Amino acid sequence: MAFDSFEVVPAVDVQDGEVVQLVQGERGTERRYGDPVEAARRWVEAGARTLHLVDLDGAFDGERANADAVGRILDATSVDVQLGGGIRTVADATELLERGVDRVILGTAAVETPEVVGEISAHHPGSVMVSLDAKDGEVVVEGWTEGTGLDPVEAAQRYADLGAGAILFTNVDVEGRQTGVETGPVRRLADSVDVPVVASGGVADVEDVVELRDAGAAAVVVGTALYEGNFTLAEAQAAVDSEG
């Protein structure tokens, strides 16, 4: 699985059936942005080639909770969709891939049972995106609440060897703050694996998007900055296309 060219990917994070954005992944910090299907349609109309969907209730509680919203988005759009949150088993992933999801994002499941990455990839090559969320340089799981002791680079290499089609790297230290990105961790990851690295966390302006592209990311997921109108999707994509 590869992105043909650098993409700016809008985030549609769903909690209790609504689009929200959290600060550093913490419940209670959310800003609400309405209906997920309307948000998804808006981003597709604005030029999104991929949508990044997260079932936040699933991420926190360990089981998918917003299947209805996800299904409606799949029915309402025709772009690539990558989905994470509460996907813990091969059966979960297979069901979603057969339903129309293009990439399943595994976080906690990949850490706890790494073999599921290979099992899913064997039947659906390139369909697994492993989510490595880092806090203070350590991979964290369970909705960013538990440390694992894993180094992101070593983990990325292991999952690439197991068949992961891409790595989603979220820097929890800057996530949701709109204070700017840290390119060092992204560059180290991108240099360490042959699969695409998708960056997430901290984007405040178009310059941040360009910096992540220059650090070796294949795409960047943007949430709060787009919803708050810091820049438009078209402006961000144009910036990386014109400097590519």
Give your account of this protein's structure.
This protein is an alpha/beta fold and 244 residues long. The chain has one domain: TIM Barrel (Alpha-Beta Barrel), CATH 3.20.20.70. The protein has helices at 36-45, 56-61, 67-76, 90-99, 108-112, 115-123, 152-162, 183-192, 206-214, 224-227, 233-242; strands at 7-15, 18-21, 31-32, 50-55, 80-84, 103-106, 128-135, 138-141, 146-147, 166-171, 197-200, 219-222. It has an eight-stranded parallel barrel with strand order 1-4-5-6-7-10-11-12, surrounded by eight helices. Strand 5 (80-84), helix 4 (90-99) and strand 6 form a beta-alpha-beta unit. Helix 1 packs parallel to helix 3 and helix 7 runs parallel beside helix 8 (183-192). The model has no long low-confidence stretch (mean pLDDT 90).
Question: Any descriptors?
Answer:
244 residues, alpha/beta, TIM Barrel, 8-stranded parallel barrel, 11 helices
